[in-house]
Structure formats: C-alpha cells, structure tokens
C-alpha cells in the first residue's frame, strides 16, 4: 500500500545557524519585532511503495543516515501517512 514519508530535518542544539541568523536580521529589517531566534531546516516528502510502516521507517531511516540528513549536525523526524 503506498504511503508518504514526511521528513523534517533540523540543526541540533548548539550548532550555529548562519542562515537562520540572516532570516532573523531580514525580518527585523522589515519591521517584524519580537523575533528572538530563527532556526531553519529542511522538509522532504517521499512517496513510498511499502506494505507496512515498520519496513518503510527502516528504509527511510537508512536514507536519512546515508544521504538526506547530516547526522553529525542535524536531527530528523519522520511521519508517515497513507497516500
């Protein structure tokens, strides 16, 4: 049964985020006050052809470990939904 994997990748706490800082400064320059910190990340959706969530999770974990996330500096979270 086809399913969709939704992967959210974020920087680990303590890792500098220069792009987040640039966004924070740009928002301030546009007059958006009260933004204290911005952290940016990535969002990836995969359409998968797996029979069950357990096998899909195992496959997507391997994809994240090998390519999609830099696990030295990034965390990832996976959600699944039937498509």
Question: What does the model show?
Answer:
- Helix content is 34%, strand content 34%.
- With 83 residues, it is α+β, with helices and mostly antiparallel strands.
- It has a single domain, classed as Mth169, Chain: A (2-Layer Sandwich), CATH 3.30.1280.10.
- It has a three-stranded antiparallel β-sheet, covered by helices on one side.
- The mean pLDDT is 96.
What keywords describe this structure?
3-stranded antiparallel β-sheet, alpha+beta, 83 residues, elongated, Mth169, Chain: A, 2 helices, 3 strands, 34% helix
Quick overview:
Helix content is 34%, strand content 34%.
Show the helix and strand layout:
Elements: E1 2-11, H1 18-29, E2 41-49, H2 53-68, E3 74-82
Antiparallel strand pairs: 1-2, 1-3
């Amino acid at each position: 049964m086809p399913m969709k994997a939704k992967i959210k990748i974020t920087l680990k706490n303590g890792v500098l985020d220069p792009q987040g800082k640039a966004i924070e400064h740009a928002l301030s320059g546009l007059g958006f006050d009260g933004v204290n910190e911005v952290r940016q990340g990535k969002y990836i959706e995969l359409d998968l052809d797996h029979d069950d969530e357990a096998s899909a999770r195992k496959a997507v974990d391997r994809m994240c470990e090998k390519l999609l996330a830099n696990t030295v500096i990034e965390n990832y979270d996976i959600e699944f939904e039937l498509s």
